[in-house]
Amino acid sequence: MPMTIKFFWGGIVDYCIKFGRRRFIILGGLLSSVTLFILVFIDPSEFLVLFAILLFIAGVGVGFLDVSADAWAIEISRENERGKINGVMFAGQALGMLIGAPLLTSIAFFYGYNYVFLATSLVILLIIIFPVLIKDAKKVKKRQKLTSTLVSEFKKKTTLLVSLFTPLSVINIGLLGIVVPLHLKFNLNMDIAQIGWLIMLWAGTKIIGSLIAGTICDKYGRKVVLYAVMGGGAFFTLMLIFANSWEAVAILYTIIGFMHGGQYTALGALLMDVTNPKVGATQFSILTSLGNVGIFSGEFVSGAMFSILGFARTFLYGAWFFGPAFIVLYITKLKFGKNKKK
């Protein structure tokens, strides 16, 4: 829940912009780390309400850290750097999945869940060492008119089109994230361990796609990369229809992971480009929340589509979901991502 309403935390960060972004990264990290450390000593079977409240507070801390870091990146970066910045961010996210999933589950299995909270608390402390050592980039000396600035930004045609494009473009990602494992389990009889290895391969190719797309979209523009990876995503989603062995699905899904990494990177750079740095925490978190709506929509309809239509037609419609996104992207006029400096 804290991450679904992160635009609220972004509003607080932007309203208090005179204090800078760095301070909220540190405070959010400390709040989360300390709360997770306290959870080590709380037994949820005896103190469930207290456990849930503390877990929520830990999520709030991560929310403040997340929106403040995004806003800070928007403030200090140039447009021809944001592709590479997002490439590294999304590659890091995928690397966290690749390493964190087997590592933390192993810790839970051998030592207990308490040590998972302890490990996570220590990792967050390590993360916030970096903003402690780096000077803040203060550009605004006073509180600003947050609401009026946001309204003005979202009246712009480009911002409105990007706001529509964002959820439409990622429906396929949410859909495949549920349907592919279901297909592997029920149609190809793979066990959960085998599916887990495939998800790790998907995360690995996502890292590569993120890093490559970051460099390309800084050089040739966001649209070029988005057209390429969305077109590739649609094509290889269609190819899943003809994949009747786990080996074929594994190859196609890892290629799709590469496309997903590139799509996340180019989309993240595009959202940074249309965001006003003065309200960077709020506006960017609203735009990324719209992306979450698209992913959740794909996940929401995936089970019903798989049950009613079967896997072949589900993959067919999953490819078609890119169609409206292509149309909106085509009519969106961008002045960003062409290697120009501020």
Protein model, in words:
- The chain is mainly α.
- The protein is 80% helix and 0% strand.
- The protein has helices spanning 6-15, 22-39, 48-76, 82-111, 113-127, 129-133, 146-154, 157-169, 171-187, 192-220, 222-239, 246-273, 280-320, 322-331.
- Helix 4 packs antiparallel against helix 10 (192-220).
- The longest helix has 41 residues, at 280-320.
| Radius of gyration over C-alpha positions, nearest whole angstrom | 21 Å
Number of domains: 2
Helix and strand sequence:
HHHHHHHHHHHHHH
For the record, what CATH class of the largest domain applies? Mainly Alpha
The helix count comes to: 14
Main beta sheet: strand number and arrangement? Answer: none
Strand content: under 5%
Throw out a few tags for this protein.
Growth Hormone, Chain: A, 14 helices, mainly alpha, 342 residues, 2 domains, disordered C terminus, 80% helix
Draw up the topology in text.
Layout: H1 6-15, H2 22-39, H3 48-76, H4 82-111, H5 113-127, H6 129-133, H7 146-154, H8 157-169, H9 171-187, H10 192-220, H11 222-239, H12 246-273, H13 280-320, H14 322-331
